[in-house]
Design goal:
With 91 residues, the protein is mainly alpha-helical. It has one domain (13-90). Helix content is 82%, strand content 0%.
Length: 91
């Protein structure tokens, strides 16, 4: 299972969500960079660069959701919540 392998490698849902947000920012940067560094190629080429990088975001968000579900089943995501509840009951 790919998600389990990613989790075993130390990749967590937060990492995938951060990668998704970074790819959105990188998409805008690639679009703006293409406009300024390749002025003779036009807007269409800049749009293609921005769209190409922007298509990574949904994949990273999907991986984040899958990892989050795995973490909930594994117990690694909710460990802190359980600890807080135990502390609240004890204190």
């Amino acid at each position: 299972m790919i998600i389990k392998g990613m989790h075993d490698m130390g990749i967590r849902s937060e990492h995938a969500y951060m990668a998704a947000l970074a790819s959105i920012g990188l998409s805008v940067a690639a679009w703006a960079g293409s406009l300024t560094m390749e002025p003779g190629t036009g807007l269409a080429r800049a749009d293609r660069w921005g769209i190409f990088v922007g298509q990574w975001a949904p994949t990273f968000f999907g991986l984040g959701v899958a990892l989050s579900h795995y973490e909930q089943q594994d117990g690694t995501l909710t460990a802190t919540v359980h600890e807080l509840r135990e502390q609240k009951k004890a204190g």
